[in-house]
Amino acid sequence: MRRTMWLRLYRLGAEGGGYPYCWTDSYALLRADGSICEVAGYDRASGLLFKPEGEHYPPVPVSPSEADAVAALEKLIALIKDFLFVRGQDRSVALSAMLTTFDRRSMSTAPLHAFSSPAAGTGKSLLVDCVPCSLPAGRCR
Questions:
Q1: Which residues touch 31 (CB under 8 Å, ≥6 apart)?
Q2: Tens digit of pLDDT for each residue in 60-94?
Q3: Where are the domains of the chain?
């Protein structure tokens, strides 16, 4: 469904000379310059369409404090707190994968994330499933 909508929007933009690139996001998006698009509709600066689908998100502070950052990090950590990571770096990779889902489209390149475990049945597939669930609406793409 989303691919069909994207193709329709792309064709519409291409025919009218409007949209250089278009993708829909249902959550606020990070632009390449680091600013945040929080206004619904086509964002010419990023080439993306922000369509919150009835969701209402609190505004993001222009200059978040360290306390704001720590609070946000704690929410992400809470999503993966029950996983048994071998090393601290392993948890950092999981957090990096989660954060990359939020700002991937603002990056010219993005890190590749790989998941492995010392034994079967440790939850790596569940961890991979948690990455898109960190999105505000919890919808996988």
A1: 37, 43, 45, 46, 106
A2: 788 889 999 899 899 889 988 988 888 888 899 99
A3: 2-50, 66-133
